[in-house]
């Protein structure tokens, strides 16, 4: 079998730190194990354009392993070229970089390491909410500059206590965010999701299910697919509470980048934070790298790393190996890991179908 994996280049850092498993240097720890079993492993970070290693090597690959952090975009056109492709493994969570409908038509299995980094992301969400609400980033920048003007920071710093926080999506990450917010004594914890939380789970965090979100803080924790692409746009942003904070660690393309920038600049949003970008790596001139609110703060954007802590990398590398081993041994996959299989969606997460 030929296994192709598209990972990011970690350079000397990844050579010095072998726990950076999601890099081309450390290859998810698969090299010796796959070679001992007589299979071929090709690893590359070169993923854009017809001349890229990815597009050349996919033509006869049996298995493709990708990550959401340096996504190889597996379009319908690429699937049509990949004549031998039987399995796409996402080392992580979120397989929107694969055209799932095209994979279904070709009866390609798409599996991901469900749950592998959900705590990592939930912690990042709570951090992002706090850094926006408390106006942390400009405060730190002021200190680095050598300045000290408390009023310039305090004029836009609040407590999280007594605020209304809502999540779009209350699955593994969304629910863990709600759990972690309980001790902050928020006024209300709300969730918007077509899948209802079990009553005891909702009660345990005091969360109410709502049909629309009118919140101080909105956190996005649903997958990217047809009906969530551009869910946050000029029109929906008008219905946000004035001065709300928005955290997106789900996927960049759920938010219209220019609409978010305009909402920040006008003060309709007081802050935007997260780690996901519509196309990754984000171009240097991506508007959300630098967009600010009228008081010069409100931007907590970082590169896509919330779900790729060293702890998470260990879990998703082991999980990807398990999925691959099951496939090579002809064993059934763990049901919760299967996104599409046998010509159909298996997951209930990518919309009501
Ligand atoms: P999950 O499958 O456990 O939960 C997703 C929830 O979203 C489900 O309850 C589903 O019903 C709900 N949902 C789907 N469409 C919706 C819609 N239109 N409106 C409201 N709710 C909707 O998935 P999990 O593990 O919580 O991950 C969620 C997403 O987070 C992933 O799909 C991925 O895009 C992103 N993610 C980001 C990471 C990062 O490093 N930034 C790492 C891991 C996941």
TrEMBL record:
Annotated site location: Important for catalytic activity: 251, 304
Q: Provide the protein's localization.
A: Cytoplasm
Give the matching SUPFAM superfamilies: Formate/glycerate dehydrogenase catalytic domain-like, NAD(P)-binding Rossmann-fold domains
Q: Name one GO molecular function term.
A: formate dehydrogenase (NAD+) activity
The record's section on InterPro entries has: D-isomer_2_OHA_DH_cat_dom, D-isomer_DH_CS, D-isomer_DH_CS1, D-isomer_DH_NAD-bd, FDH_NAD-dep, NAD(P)-bd_dom_sf
Residues bound to NAD(+) are: 172-173, 193, 223-227, 249, 275, 304-307
One GO BP on record is: formate catabolic process
> Record-annotated residues binding substrate?
93, 117
Write the Enzyme Commission number(s) for this entry: 1.17.1.9
Record field: catalytic activity: formate + NAD(+) = CO2 + NADH
Q: Which Pfam families match?
A: 2-Hacid_dh, 2-Hacid_dh_C
Query: Where does the D-isomer specific 2-hydroxyacid dehydrogenase NAD-binding domain start and stop, copy by copy?
Result: 127-293
Main location, first listed in the record: cytoplasm
Q: Which UniProt keywords apply?
A: Cytoplasm, NAD, Oxidoreductase
Domain of life here? Answer: Eukaryota
Question: Which parts of the sequence belong to the D-isomer specific 2-hydroxyacid dehydrogenase catalytic domain?
Answer: 33-337
GO CC field: cytosol
Q: Could you give the subunit structure recorded for this chain?
A: Homodimer.
Q: Record's family?
A: Belongs to the D-isomer specific 2-hydroxyacid dehydrogenase family. FDH subfamily.
Q: What does this protein do?
A: Catalyzes the NAD(+)-dependent oxidation of formate to carbon dioxide. Formate oxidation is the final step in the methanol oxidation pathway in methylotrophic microorganisms. Has a role in the detoxification of exogenous formate in non-methylotrophic organisms.
List the protein's name: Formate dehydrogenase
Q: Which organism is it from?
A: Botryobasidium botryosum (strain FD-172 SS1)
């Amino acid at each position: 079998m030929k296994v192709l994996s598209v990972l990011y280049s970690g350079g000397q850092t990844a050579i010095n730190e072998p726990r950076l498993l999601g890099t081309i240097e450390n290859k998810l720890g698969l090299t010796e194990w796959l070679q001992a079993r007589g299979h071929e492993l090709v690893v590359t970070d070169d993923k854009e354009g017809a001349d890229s290693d990815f597009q050349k090597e996919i033509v006869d690959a049996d298995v493709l392993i990708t990550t959401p952090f340096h996504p190889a975009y597996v379009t319908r056109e690429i699937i049509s070229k990949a004549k031998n492709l039987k399995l796409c493994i996402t080392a992580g969570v979120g397989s929107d970089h694969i055209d799932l409908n095209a994979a279904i038509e070709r009866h390609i299995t798409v599996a991901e390491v469900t749950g592998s980094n959900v705590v990592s992301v939930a912690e990042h969400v709570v951090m992002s909410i706090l850094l926006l609400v408390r106006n942390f980033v400009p405060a730190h920048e002021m200190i680095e500059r050598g300045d000290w003007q408390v009023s310039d920071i305090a004029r836009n710093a609040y407590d999280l206590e007594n605020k209304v926080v809502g999540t779009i999506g209350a699955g593994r990450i969304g629910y863990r965010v709600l759990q972690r917010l309980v001790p902050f004594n928020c006024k209300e914890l709300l969730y918007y999701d077509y899948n209802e939380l079990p009553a005891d789970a909702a009660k345990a965090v005091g969360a109410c299910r709502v049909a629309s979100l009118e919140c101080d803080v909105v956190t996005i924790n649903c997958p990217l697919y047809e009906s969530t692409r551009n869910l946050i746009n000029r029109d929906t942003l008008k219905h946000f509470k004035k001065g709300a904070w928005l955290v997106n660690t789900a996927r960049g393309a759920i938010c219209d980048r220019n609409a978010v920038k305009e909402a920040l600049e006008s003060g309709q949003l007081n802050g935007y934070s997260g780690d996901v970008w519509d196309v990754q790596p984000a171009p240097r001139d991506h508007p959300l790298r630098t967009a600010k609110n009228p008081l010069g703060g409100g931007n907590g954007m970082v590169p896509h790393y919330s779900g790729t802590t060293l702890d998470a990398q260990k879990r998703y590398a082991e999980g990807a190996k398990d999925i691959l081993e099951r496939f090579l041994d002809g064993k059934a996959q763990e049901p919760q890991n299967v996104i599409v299989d046998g010509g159909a969606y298996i997951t209930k997460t990518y919309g009501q179908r």
